Every structure is written in structure tokens, then in C-alpha cells.
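User: Run a structure prediction on this.
Assistant: Running it now.
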Amino acid sequence: MNDRERVLTALGHRQPDKVPYSIGFTQRMHARMAEYYGDPDFAAKLGDCFLTLGCAPEDAWREVAPDIWEDEFGVRWNRSVDKDIGVVCNRAVTPENLRTYKFRDPAEPSRYAGYASALAGPREKFAVANLGFSLFERAWTLTGMENFLMAMAADKAFAHALLDKILEFNMGVIERACSRDIDAMMFGDDWGQQRGLIMGPALWREFIKPRLRQMYGAVKAKGKFVFIHSCGKVDAVFPDLIECGLSVFNPFQPEAMDVFEMKRRYGDVLSFYGGISTQRTLPYGTVAQVREEVRRLLDEVGRNGGYIAAPAHAIPGDAKPENVAAMIEVLQEQ
């Protein structure tokens, strides 16, 4: 099997010849591993199962001041400390300017300019179009986390109106990305903290779920798989996500949920992607503990398909290089 065939087999809840895997790194950890291996191109040789394509235009980012980057939505990110994402440092949308605030055109050709060449020829990798900060995250980055959470309780009209604008934009991107020869659409939208949903299940079902139903339905109507990346403990809404048409849940954090119980409870209808501890084992464990954890995930969660092995997030800079190398060896040696 090639990597695409392994993923398709796993998502069909059948046993592939080996569990497919994907490994992402923060900038700092990538640099540390390049030094560890003595190879700046090490990541290209790991056997990652995905071909990931973006949905942003070519001029999506511009540096407006030292370490301050503005995205296509007018949100400014301070990257003086966090070089990978940054911290929002402005407010682009308010109740007063929402009516006049304009999203850029989801049909801009540069958003999809690389798809044709990337998807040409025999397909070895499973192709995923990635739409990050797709709903709740887009809303709070535009108007502020505290402001949006308060609006969900005290200014519902504003919260719904902002989410509807985001939904309209997303549906345009979904239509165009899923008209290409991709295999899946990945949405990024963190709803969780370590102990539960940030806004609680009731508000999630009021504001988020109806729009997910439309987004996921549009992807499924094009014959593609639906992935969601949502950090934290969000298993309370797994039945809702399955109802909406979700195919794959990521990052499957073992620090926030019992990943083996989730496989037992939902593994017949939902696939999982992630599960290798980036908060505990990779930074603080031993090489032997890393090997044991990864092998158990492959054996138990990977049994009968439904699993893509991966760290539970892009590996942070405090992970031990020898632990990361041990994880890679177990994944490659299947």
C-alpha cells in the first residue's frame, strides 16, 4: 500500500498494512531535530501520509511592524514570542462596524493556484485542503476572545451575525476547494480547554453546531472526508459531530481524554488522528516510555483501522529530540 491507500483503508475502518502517520513540528522543534539529525531536510523523509494544501491567497500575510503580522482578515498577530502563530493584538470587528466589514473573495484564484500541479499524476499521498481558524476561532480572533464569549451570552444577535459572515466565506472556500481532486477538507477550530468546552455544550450547540452541519454537509456532498482539529476536552460533543458528518477527529489529546475509551466508544463510526502525548511523554518521558506509548496506540487504537498516528499537536520546542526520534522510529518500523 502507498500512504493514500493506507489512509483510505483506515478511514474505511479496515486494517491497513501499517497504521498511517503524520508528524508536525513547531519552528523551534524543527530546528532542534534538524540539528539532531544533522539534516535540514529530515522532515521530508519521514513518510508523512498527507499532502496538505492551503486555502489562503498568496498575499495573505504582511509584516506591518517588526514581528507584527497582519492576515487577510485584518487581524494583527504579535510574533515576538510565538513564532508559529502569535498573539492577536488588535480588534478588527465590532458590533458597530460588522455591517460594513468585508471578507476577501473566497474565489480568488491564488487560493487554489497550487492545487493542479500538486494533485497531478499518480497519487501517493492523501490530499487534504486545510481551512484553519474556521468558525469560533475566526470569530474570536476578529473581535477578541472575551468579547465574543460575552456576546454568545449577552449579545446573541452580534454573535450570530458574525458567525453567519464567517460561514458564508467558508462555504465559498469549501465549494471551490472540494471541486478539486482532494480527498478531504480539514477544519481548524479549537473549542476545548483541558477540562471541557470553552463555551460549554449548550452554547456550542446553539452557535457552532448548526453551522458545522452546513459546512460538513457541503464537504460530504462533494464526496470528500471531513476532518476537524479541535484541541482540548471536547468529547461531550462527539455524538453531535458524528451527526453533522464528521469523519476524523484531531488532535485526540491523551491529556484531555481517555483515547482508548474514545476508540472503544466511537471507533465504529469515527476515526481518530493524533494521540501521542506532546504535553507529557515527548517532553518529560523516557525513550522507553515513548516507544511503549506509541506501540500501544498503534496496536489498540489502530486495530481494525480508524486511526492516523500523530503527535497530539505540532511538536513543541521543549520535547526531547531523542524522544521524538524514538517515536519516529516506531512509526517507521511498523
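The chain has one domain: 3-332.
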